[in-house]
Specification:
heterodimer; A: alpha/beta; Rossmann fold; six-stranded mixed beta sheet; three-stranded antiparallel beta sheet; 10 helices; 36% helix; globular; B: alpha+beta; MetI-like fold; 2 domains; seven-stranded mixed beta sheet; four-stranded antiparallel beta sheet; 15 helices; 47% helix; binds adenosine-5'-triphosphate; binds magnesium ion
């Protein structure tokens, strides 16, 4: 929407997106362009369709009954909903982290190794290296290096579990990272760690982060998109959104008067 | 509302406690067991014609009872006094005796009664039988012998007590070595004795006195409870055996096979319902499956008997041999039908309890439905799935009607001599613990030993299913992701 001289190429393009859950329309005529290697936060009141938007991007809604999706989505030049779309390639390209940490019921090592094993056929030493690297990137390595081959991922604390999920996602080396309220279940210290991580990743990755924490959005993001009632109300540089929004409802929301 | 919850909880707990108390209380009759033994002891003429089988001996020794020791006698025999020499002359001949509880000094010769020569006494009272031995004057030129043999139905080797034949007193006119025969080592035999001739009726009791003595040993006590570990269940024989092994074996085999038959179907159905069935299908299939769980088992049993048993018998009879459609295979198959709804329903709940977020994580990583299942959902639901199978097991262990109708009622101890023999076990009739309790409870002596053992069997089943249920419940609750 708002182009500036410093803007990077568009990596995700959405045009005229409508999403229905049965009769209920959750997203209404969304069009947006997401810039490469930048952090974009999605904000808006509960139920406005942020999660739906995120999940629609990488086709995480196949299991939902009665969902209907209209419009055009391009991720790195590919339509995830096209006939014969390479889902596996999409998953390689797009990683996702969820609100509730969701480690698998297996060891920390196996959690992280699952992706690279499946996508790149890595084994043995190479796999070990990738796992260690991912754990380091997710700032979890120091805490688990002694027992990460034995310890079940479910036996970590909530904050550690979320970093494990980030490591698991990073181990696949995605270009685009979708995070749906990654810190909402975490304490302030873990939240700070994840925020720092987002900062480090932004140089090399495109990040879309849903958050309810407006300070956090302002801190971590380059761009912000404000959703309300299924519509994308305003999308632009975070600075502009938070200091000088165009729309009245955005103004109300970011100033805490609403939502 | 709250009061209602407390009240029903109270009723449940009180019921369980009452059941345990009642089962335990009535089980004690199993321990009031007296071991009978059947032995024949006879004084015989050495030269006379006698049969080795003492029961056929025309000169069989008359064993008589003193009034004090009537326990072993039939009513009729109590009224028949010990024959006098006159009565004995010209026919039956040697010896005579008496079973009694007391000692020799208490024997009143005028109150000796005729008995069968069989001594059948409870062994654990330590009672002994006395056998008085003498020859009638006609046989004064002959030598005499004492012979002994067990009743046909009595196996002294199995008897959990010691059994001895001892010479208590020899007549004053002869000198003999002490005699003490361990009947467990030497169950059958014959020994010559210096002759003693009773010349008067009084002298009948002044000759040889042998004692047949059963003494309890440590294994008697062990056998009272340890008897349930035997491999024979024969509660109505003259020496009843209360081994639980064949009954619990039947329960084990039926449960094992039924679980093996039912689990794959049940788990596959549960996976389909929880992972890929459209909600329309699930909303419809699940109640139908649960409805199947409420079909009375007597209906299932007769369905099996009328349709499945003849079918199996017709198709399998030629291939492997099957005498009757009532067999282990039929029972287990119908039992599996009973278990499928239970296991499916609990397994489906367990799978649905796995958080969607885990599936999301797998999907975001690129795992297909099958991979998600194998690597994430099934391992995560492991506890609940095990619980489902355990609950199925508990159901199968307690099931009575199906086994009663389809089992054929004969204990089965499987044999494993090669493939054909092993498979053949499936075609044999089987009986299990619950159907045995149900079948036999109507015909037992109230608060007798058999009765006690049926209660003990019931208690065993109750404890078994209770433990399995508790383990299943705990496993089902302890989900990996909730730790
Ligand atoms: N699987 C579903 N089936 C039916 N309706 C759904 C489903 N998922 C979401 N919705 C509805 O779609 C709308 C948007 O939901 P969504 O989860 O995208 O909101 P959100 O912005 O992420 O909210 P929150 O901030 O609470 O996470 C809501 O009204 C919600 O009730
Ligand atoms: Mg959401």
């Amino acid at each position: 929407m708002i182009e500036t001289a410093t803007s990077t190429p568009v990596v995700i393009g959405v045009r005229g997106l409508n999403v229905f859950y049965g009769e209920k329309q959750a997203l209404k005529n969304i069009s947006a362009e997401i810039h490469e290697k930048k952090v974009t936060t999605l904000i808006g009141p509960s139920g406005c369709g942020k999660s739906t938007f995120l999940r629609t991007l990488n086709r995480m809604n196949d299991r939902i009954e009665g969902i209907r999706i209209e419009g055009d989505i391009q991720i790195a030049g590919e339509d995830p909903y096209a006939k014969g779309a390479d889902l596996l390639a999409l998953r390689r390209r797009v990683g996702m982290v969820f609100q509730k940490p969701n480690p698998f019921p297996m060891t920390i090592y196996e959690n992280v190794a699952m992706g690279p094993k499946m996508h790149y056929g890595l084994r043995g030493k190479q796999l070990d290296e990738v796992v260690e690297e991912a754990l380091r990137e997710a700032a979890l390595w120091d805490e688990v290096k002694d027992d990460f081959r034995k310890k079940n991922g479910l036996n970590l604390s909530g904050g550690q579990q979320q970093r494990l999920c980030i490591a698991r996602m990073l181990a696949v080396r995605p270009e685009i990272i979708l995070m749906d309220e990654p810190c909402s279940a975490l304490d302030p210290i873990s939240t700070a760690k994840v925020e720092e991580l987002i900062g480090q990743l932004s140089g090399a990755h495109t990040l879309l982060v849903v958050t309810h924490n407006l300070q956090q959005a302002e801190r971590i993001s380059d761009y912000t998109a404000f959703f309300m009632f299924g519509e994308l109300v305003e999308h632009g540089h975070s600075k502009a959104i938070f200091t000088d929004p165009v729309h009245r409802s955005t103004q109300d929301y970011v100033s805490g008067r609403f939502g | 509302m709250e009061a209602l919850i407390y009240a029903s909880g109270g009723v449940v707990i009180v019921t369980i406690l009452a059941v345990v108390y009642y089962l335990t209380h009535e089980s004690k009759y199993a321990y009031e067991r007296k071991f009978d033994y059947g032995y024949r002891v006879a004084l015989q003429p050495v030269s006379g014609q006698y049969e080795k089988d003492l029961s056929l001996d025309p000169y069989a020794t008359l064993v008589t009872a003193n009034k004090e020791g009537l326990d072993g006698l039939d009513e009729k025999e109590e009224t028949v006094p010990m024959p006098t020499l006159e009565e004995l002359s010209g026919g039956a001949t040697f010896g005579t005796g008496t079973p009694l509880s007391g000692d020799l000094a208490k024997v009143d010769p005028s109150k000796l009664y005729r008995d069968d020569w069989r001594a059948q006494k409870p062994a654990n009272v330590g009672q002994r039988f006395l056998v008085f031995g003498f020859a009638t004057p006609e046989y004064k030129s002959d030598k005499m012998a004492i012979a002994w043999a067990p009743d046909a139905s009595f196996n002294s080797e199995l008897a959990p007590f010691d059994l001895h034949l001892r010479l208590v007193r020899a007549p004053s006119s002869v000198t003999v070595q002490p005699i003490d025969i361990d009947l467990k080592r030497q169950p059958e035999g014959r020994m010559e004795l210096p002759s003693y001739v009773a010349t008067s009726d009084e002298a009948r009791t002044e000759g040889y006195v042998f004692a047949l003595e059963a003494t309890p040993t440590s294994s008697t006590a062990a056998a009272v409870s340890g008897g349930i570990f035997r491999s024979e269940w024969d509660p109505t024989g003259s020496y009843p055996k209360f081994g639980f092994v064949p009954l619990l074996m039947g329960t084990f085999l039926i449960t094992l096979l039924a679980i093996l038959f039912a689990s794959p179907f049940a788990i596959a159905t549960a996976v389909y319902l929880s992972e890929s069935a459209p909600s329309r299908v699930r909303e419809w299939v699940k109640p139908v499956i649960e409805l199947l769980a409420s079909v009375p088992t007597v209906v299932l049993g007769y369905f099996g008997l009328m349709l499945v048993a003849p079918f199996l018998q017709n198709t399998l009879a030629k291939a492997v041999g099957m005498d009757s459609g009532r067999a282990l295979l039929t029972t287990s198959l119908i039992m599996a039908v009973l278990l499928i709804p239970t296991i499916t329903s609990v397994a489906e709940d367990a799978l649905r309890a796995v958080p969607q977020s885990m599936r999301d994580g797998g999907e975001a990583l690129g795992l297909t439905l099958k991979e998600r299942l194998r690597k994430i959902v099934l391992p995560a639901a492991k506890g609940g799935l095990t619980a489902a199978i355990l609950l199925g097991m508990a159901r199968a262990i307690g099931e009575t009607m199906i086994v009663w109708i389809l089992g054929g009622g004969a204990p089965l101890l499987p044999t494993f001599h090669g493939v054909k023999d092993t498979v053949g076990n499936l075609m044999k009739p089987v009986t299990a613990a619950p159907d045995t309790v149900a079948r036999e409870m109507g015909n037992v002596d109230f608060q007798g030993v058999h009765y006690g053992h049926l209660f003990l069997l019931g208690l065993t089943l109750f404890v078994l299913t209770l433990v399995i249920n508790i383990v299943g419940y705990r496993l089902g609750r302890r989900n990996a992701w909730q730790s």
